[in-house]
Structures are given as structure tokens and as C-alpha cells.
Amino acid sequence: MVDNEFLKKLSQNLLKTLNDDEYSDITIEVEIFHIILRYIYGGKLSLEEYDTSDIVKILVAANELCLQELVTHLQSFLIKNKTDWMEKNFNLTYQTSFENNSFLELQEYCTNLISEYPDKILESLDFSTIPENLLISIIQSDNLQIDEVQIWEHVLKWGLAQNPGLSSDHSTYSKDDFISLKNTLQRCIPFIRFYNLTSKDFADKVLPYKKVLSKELYTDLLKTFLYLHPNSKPSEKSKPRMTKKYSQTNSENKQIKQSHIGSLISHDSRRNNVKKIIADISDEEYPMSHESRRNNVKKIIPDKSNKEFERL
């Protein structure tokens, strides 16, 4: 427990800070502030008692109060115990980690996830709220372990989320609707590897949104996919991302190629089928002063159980 003299100084510091313009923009939720006060006065904090979202709020508040030991421990706790939550709520984790340079461990976690497992970010619950630059960084990655058509669908989903007035039904779009979506996606589209799509994916998923593509890109894609078998890709122009977690042997590849020979349809039939598909598509988130906080808060370290802190 903390002695009365410490509590007296702490209260004085709080009053001074409330009148200090330098900290006038610091806001801490009452419940979160009470948690930190109980920690300062009692020397303990049982993290298992709180939701992960509250732990993130405690982290932010601890940083504002310059409780660096607490900041370090909270980051470690999140990374070791709450990765599933952080993956599902990646944008919140990402935005929080880069608010300042005190959350270096979280920043490293986010950077590694973006680099090594970008597909997990696309599948996160708050994917549609990520900033444009982060989206571009993700879709540029060679490490995406999902099909290109899914990447395109996620980019469309993100674009629609930035335009809440747009329906998910593209057939109802006006010319202005397509222009709005095109303007939103213009920096993302160059990083979609359309040539990794199959002819069917192109016809079913891209052609309905042809008006968001540049004329040059649309024309080239049309020429490229027009004569292909529905399940084929334009191998001469494709740029595959990282290979899947398994690879096929040469003999397996040969067997697959041979099994496909019998299913190939004639050149004219392919052309007519693709033309028919094309024709069916419609055009149209009680601070203290800086020095006082550091002088008043004693050194805190996590115990061996990693579930609570005790004051030395």
C-alpha cells in the first residue's frame, strides 16, 4: 500500500494537471482511471479480470500517465495471450500501437503480421475501417495466402464501406455511383493482380465493376480473358503470390494436366460462352504532470504468474 504522503502529493499533482494546458487534451475513462488508481494504491492488477478492449484502454491510459513499466508489461501480456483478439480487431490494435513511440512491442507485432500473415488482416472484423495506405501495403504483399478473386472482393468490400450510401447490389448503381467507387479504389486497383484470376472469376466478379477500371486496363483484360477456358488463367501475364502451404510434385502436375485435356472445349465455344457472359452483364478512439508522475510512481514489475503486478 502507498503511504498517506504519497496520496497527498498524487492528489495535488492531479489538480495541477487538470489546470495544465499541456495535458488538457488527455482524456481517460472514469472506470479505466479507477483501475489504474487501484493499481497505484494497491500495487496489483489482475489482467484476467478485464476484457481485452479494456486492457488496451488501460495501456493507453498508463502511457498518458507515464507508467512505463506498466506499459511494457501490458504490451507483453497482449502479445503473449491475446493474439487472436488482436488479429480480429487489427485496425484498433494497429492504430493504437502507432499513436506514439511508447508501444514499440505492439508496433513490431503489427508490422510482422502485415508482412507475414496479411491475409489475417483481410479477415479481421474491422477490416473495412483500415486506412488506405495499410490496405495498399497488404494487397502488394506476395505473402497473401488467398485467391486473387478474394483479394478483389475484399478491396471492393473496403471501397463500399468508404461509401456507405452505395448498395452492395451493383446493378442498381448510377453513373455517379460508379464514379464514387472508382475514385475510392483508384490507388488500390493497380495492385490487384487481375491476371491471376481465372476467366470465370473475371467474368463473374470483375466485369460487373468494369466502370471502376481504366479504359486501357479494361480493354487489355477483356482481350486477355476472352478466349480462355473458364477455369484457365493467362499464365504469360500472371504474377503468382507466394505458393500455397503445399506444393505439387511434377508427376501430380502431369496427371492434373492430362485430366484437364478431356474437359477442354473448343476455341469457338469458349469465345461464344464468354461473349454471352459479357452480354448478360448490365452496363451501367486524471492525469498528472510529467515529472511528478515519474517521481511519485515507484518501480513496478510483473510477478511470475504474469497475471498481476506487485510494488517493490
Automatic annotation (TrEMBL):
Residues 287-312 have a biased composition (Basic and acidic residues). InterPro entries: BACK, BTB/POZ_dom, SKP1/BTB/POZ_sf. Residues 7-81 form the BTB domain. Residues 232-265, 286-312 are annotated as: Disordered. Pfam families: BACK, BTB. SUPFAM superfamilies: POZ domain. Residues 245-261 have a biased composition (Polar residues). Residues 102-159 form the BACK domain. PANTHER family: BTB (POZ) DOMAIN-CONTAINING 2B-RELATED (PTHR45774:SF3), BTB/POZ DOMAIN-CONTAINING (PTHR45774). This is BTB/POZ protein. It comes from Rhizophagus clarus.
